[in-house]
């Protein structure tokens, strides 16, 4: 494999490789990458998920390809969205801070972020509590924890042996690039 100098091509190719791993891992779960991001941001926002400060950063991290995480008798979520059991009236009932976080992470408008949460709610993966908070359901949390465990195994394989100083330097550079890209998109 040839060494690609730091720049847009390296960042783009890295992102595409990581997304390809995520897409493979999400096969059979019924989740799309945007839904995975929304589920992660919902799960890491609640105390029940035992979230770490890195969880939001790993919202769209790749995972190791594996067996389906969806129950055998349950059709993929994408085939159920908008079908029986979905509740389109729930769309406007989500906390503004969660909608904003999802919209920012996905680089979409707030209506699209609300749609991702509505899809998760319709699939029984998140619910709104009586206090107005959005939390994963037991099934949603189990799915998130299974995929998240795969993410942790994969990230350890990808950069677990890279020296901490190198990871810190890469993190600083990529955060600068991300902030500048965000400013250009605003």
TrEMBL record:
Record region (Disordered): 65-84
InterPro entries documented for this protein: WH-like_DNA-bd_sf, WH_DNA-bd_sf
Protein name: MarR family transcriptional regulator
């Amino acid at each position: 494999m040839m060494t690609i100098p730091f720049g847009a091509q390296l960042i783009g190719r890295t992102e595409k490789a990581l997304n390809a791993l995520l897409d493979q891992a999400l096969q059979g779960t019924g989740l799309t990458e945007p839904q995975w991001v929304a589920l992660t941001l919902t799960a890491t926002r609640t105390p029940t998920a035992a979230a770490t400060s890195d969880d939001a950063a790993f919202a769209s991290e790749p995972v190791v390809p594996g067996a389906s995480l969806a129950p055998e008798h349950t059709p993929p979520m994408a085939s159920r969205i908008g079908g029986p059991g979905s509740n389109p009236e729930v769309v406007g009932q989500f906390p503004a801070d969660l909608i904003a976080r999802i919209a920012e992470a996905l680089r979409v408008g707030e209506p699209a972020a609300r749609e991702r949460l509505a899809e998760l709610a319709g699939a029984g993966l998140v619910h709104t509590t009586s206090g107005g908070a959005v939390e994963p359901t037991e099934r949603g949390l189990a799915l998130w924890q299974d995929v998240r465990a795969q993410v942790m195994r994969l990230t350890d394989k990808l950069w677990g042996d890279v020296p901490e100083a190198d990871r810190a330097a890469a993190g600083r550079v990529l955060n600068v690039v991300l902030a500048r890209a965000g400013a250009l998109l605003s």
